[in-house]
Amino acid sequence: MNEEDSTFGWYGRSLQTSSFNTNVIHLETHLVSSKLGELKLNAVEPIDVENWVREIQAKKWFSRNGQMTEVRTPASPAYKRRCHGFVRKIFNVAIKHKIIHANPAVGVNLPTIPERRNTSLTDSQLKSLYKCKCRTGSILIFAAETGLRRGELLEVKWSNISEAGLVVVNHKNHNKEDALPLSDIARSVVERQPRLGEWVFCTESGKQLTTRNLNRDVRGLFDRLGFSKETRLHDLRGKFTTDLIAAGVDIKTTQTMARHTDATTTLKYYARTSEEAKIAALDSLKKKRGLEDGGVERGEDNPS
C-alpha cells in the first residue's frame, strides 16, 4: 500500500472521505463481529455476502427511565444496500492490490427498495400556506413558486438573484448552476426579506440557515396549519412540478424548470394522471368526434 493510500486507511482512496464516519459505523457495527468479517478475503463467496446483508439490523437508542437502552430492529432495504456498497468497495480495493481476483459482492441478491412515490400539497393546503406572513411561510411560498429542493433553498444568496431570475446552485446534479425565472410572487417574497448578510433566507443574526433549523421551523408551521405528519417540504416541489404538467406545460420545459437531469424522472415521479384528467380526456374525445349532444342513435342488436 503506497503512502497516499495510507492516508485514507486500509480501504484506500476509493472509499470517499466525505462518508468516512458512515463507513466506520458500517465496519464496527456490522462487519467486524460478523461471520463475514471473520473470513479471509480470498475465502469469501457471494453467498457469504448475501447472508451477511440479510442479517443486518439497525441499532437505535431509546431513553427509558433515564437510562439509554439499545434496541435492534430489522434494517431497511436502503440501509442494507448501503452496507453492501461499503463491502463491495472493500473488495474492489483488495482486487486493486491483487489480494483477490473477483469481487464476491457483485451479483448477490439484494433487498428491493419500494418505489418512492412523490406526493404534493393539495390546493387547499397551498392556499392556507400562501396566507402565512412569518419567515418560514415566506420560505415555503418561495419553494412553492420555484420548486427548489431543501438544499437549494438554503443556498439562495442575494448575488444569485437578478432581473433575469435566480441562479440555482444545484448540489444534487453535479454542482450545476441553472438559471430559473422568478414569478411576481417569488420576487415579492424576496423583496420582503431583510438584508442581514449574503443569504436571502437566514437566521436573525444573518447566518445561513441549517437543515436542522429549516426542518424544525417547517414542521412547526405545518403543525399549526393542521397538515398531516406525513406532509414534507419536498411536497411543495411535487406541487410545483405536477401543477406545471396539469397546466399543459410540455415535459421538456417542466424538466428544465424542475432541474431534473433526465425527463424520465419528471415522467416517472411527477406526471401522475388524476381521475379528473381522465374524465376531461373523455370529454375532449367526445367533442373531437362531434358527439357533444350524444349524437348516436340507439338501435337494436341483431344477433343474426
In short:
This protein has 304 residues and is mainly α. The chain has 2 domains: 3-96, no CATH class; 123-277, Orthogonal Bundle (hpI Integrase, Chain A). It contains 14 helices and 5 strands.
Please characterize this protein's 3D structure.
The chain is mainly α and 304 residues long. It folds into 2 domains: 94 residues, no CATH class; 155 residues, Intergrase catalytic core (hpI Integrase, Chain A). Helices cover 46% and strands 10% of the residues. The protein has a 3-stranded antiparallel sheet, with no helix packed on it. A two-stranded antiparallel sheet has the order 1-2. A hairpin with a 2-residue loop joins strand 3 and strand 4. Helix 7 packs antiparallel against helix 9.
Name the descriptors.
2 domains, mainly alpha, single chain, hpI Integrase, Chain A, 304 residues, two-stranded antiparallel ribbon
User: For this structure, what is the CATH homologous superfamily of the largest domain?
Assistant: Intergrase catalytic core
Mean pLDDT: 81
Envelope shape: extended
**CATH architectural grouping of the largest domain:** Orthogonal Bundle
Secondary structure topology:
Blueprint: H1 3-6, H2 20-31, H3 35-38, H4 46-55, E1 57-64, E2 67-74, H5 77-96, H6 123-130, H7 135-146, H8 150-154, E3 161-162, E4 165-170, E5 176-180, H9 184-191, H10 211-224, H11 234-246, H12 251-258, H13 263-269, H14 275-288
